[in-house]
Design goal:
It is built from two helices and seven strands; from the N terminus they run E-E-E-E-H-H-E-E-E. With 87 residues, it is α+β, with helices and mostly antiparallel strands. Strand 6 and strand 7 form a beta hairpin. It is globular. The termini are far apart.
Length: 87
């Protein structure tokens, strides 16, 4: 069973929903690319409920990217949006 669902949003954002809530990852549309922070950065930017779910998130996001012909970039500068605030 999947932990997360992914829904692109018009603002070049990817809304990620899990059991504890939701957060937003960057999803530029020019060349469809999802951005995920590195695991160490994730622990400082992610919502509290998702801090220990990085490996599952990365696995499911990779699969979503393959299914949607999107690139995946893992970068320490990638942002995470929580309640319309970016970090």
């Amino acid at each position: 069973m999947k932990e997360f669902t992914f829904q692109p949003r018009w603002k070049e954002e990817l809304v990620v929903t899990g059991n504890g809530g939701e957060f937003i990852l960057e999803l530029p549309m020019g060349v469809l690319t999802a951005y995920l922070p590195t695991e160490s950065t994730w622990k400082t930017k992610s919502p509290e409920w998702a801090k220990n779910l990085y490996s599952e998130l990365e696995k499911e996001l990779r699969l979503w990217c393959v299914e949607n012909k999107a690139n995946l970039i893992i970068d320490e500068t990638a942002g995470v949006g929580i309640n319309d605030k970016w970090s």
